[in-house]
Amino acid sequence: xxxxxxxxxxxxxxxxxxxxxxxxxxxxxxxxxxxxxxxxxxxxxxxxxxxxxxxxxxxxxxxxxxxxxxxxxxxxxxxxxxxxxxxxxxxxxxxxxxxxxxxxxxxxxxxxxxxxxxxxxxxxxxxxxxxxxxxxxxxxxxxxxxx
Length: 147
What we know:
alpha+beta, 2 domains
């Protein structure tokens, strides 16, 4: 099965390998079909904190039900069955998205980028002296002191 690249948070993540062996099981149920899709892949792309390379292992074990009754409620119709054909690539892409962690990181303790100078804090941990306030905010500083 061919897997499509992801666009997530404005960054591109590539499934490796792009073509995976998948297990598809189809069972007849009362009034419809139950589809089960299983496969494993890895996504490669930038860390969401430091932009270095990150890899996430993804294990997919997804189910879909599709009613045989064309008049059945929309919730009983699978969006992946189009003209009596099961569309695997879109289903696989959505199933991968559901299995992704909240953040894709190069490592769990990634320190990210320095908010002041943009240096990777994993490579060069540092702190900056207290920054001087922007003079354009001085009027608001005066208000804060009065409150």
